[in-house]
Specification:
Elements lengths: L1 H25 L2 H26 L5 H19 L5 H14 L8 H19 L4 H19 L7 E8 L10 H12 L2 E11 L4 E9 L1
Helix pairs in contact: 2-3, 2-5, 2-6, 3-4, 3-5, 4-5
Keywords: Membrane, Transmembrane, Transmembrane helix
InterPro entries: DUF4956
Pfam family, one: DUF4956
Amino acid sequence: MTILQQVTNLDTLQTIQASGFQLFDKLSTKFFVRLAIDLISTTILVRLIYYKTYQKSEQFFTFFTFNITIFLITYLLNHVEMSMGAAFGLFAVFSMLRYRTESISTRDMTYLFLVIAIGLLSAVSKGGWDELSALNFILLSVTALLESKWLIKKEHSKEVLYENIDLIHAEKRKELIEDLHLRTGLNVHRVEIQSIDFLKDATRIIIYYFD
């Protein structure tokens, strides 16, 4: 009886192993190469460009999840003769689902589009791995260039509560900017008056400054 159970268990194990190998046989080397290029490109975009510039990690899960989901679904549908129009339709649907009810900055939405585009491009591109790598390299290079200070100075903004309302007059704008520069230590170059509270002698101002 023991020998029979061992033979049965051995047959079952061989069947499971054979099924596992058949599963991996259905996924060609092309799939794993494209997946590797997709993940490497997304990692460079999110970790080395986005995080290095904005120091924000709360969107990591969203970026990587959207990217891999788009890649897998598009790669699967691409094997049932999905047209390029359908692929871009899928791109549009997924790009709008995440932030239907939650506010998101324009920058974060742009990076969301980029990670979806990388997943879509990696899945449906008809070229080889070298052409796909070149396309992703161009996309990443342009993004890194635009995020750098080589083309244009990067402008930042902050909202401050300012109590010296005597300087909010248009003719005293230069004095206001100099005072804000002395108080904040930032290279303020322009301001916007948001609201004025004459009862508290305070105003809310958005200051714009360069790094």
